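Forgive a beginner's question, but would it be possible to get a protein, spelled out as residues, together with the matching structure tokens, please?
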Amino acid sequence: MAPARRRLAYNPAPHDTTDLPAVPARVRSLDGQLVETAKDCWTMRVSSDGGHAISIRWAKLQRLDQPCCYTRRAEHLVRLYLADRLTRKKASTIHNDFGTFLYFEDWLRTDAGVHRFDWTELNERLARAFLAHGLD
């Protein structure tokens, strides 16, 4: 009988993104817009034939009063997630998603008392507390 294999947990450092893909320099959105995702401000139109401009400003995570609690890895994963969703959803949806990530970060710092957050730390208790906060 072969010995049972132990599964080794991979715990990258909070600042380590070397095992993750790079955020693409450009992404073609669902409606055909070319969005420069390598920049710290992603700009797109509500629709490809015009409408007002929507901006995702990553600098909003860096406040003067308190540092962002997302680790570099957590922020990188959010960027990858939104860049991927941009190919399948409208610009306004991506903007709303970004707003939710900002809201979640603010809640983590102010209400949950979290100073450093990586997505590996998300558990059911934390998720339920955030959802309950949203219902208040």
In short: The chain has three helices and four strands.
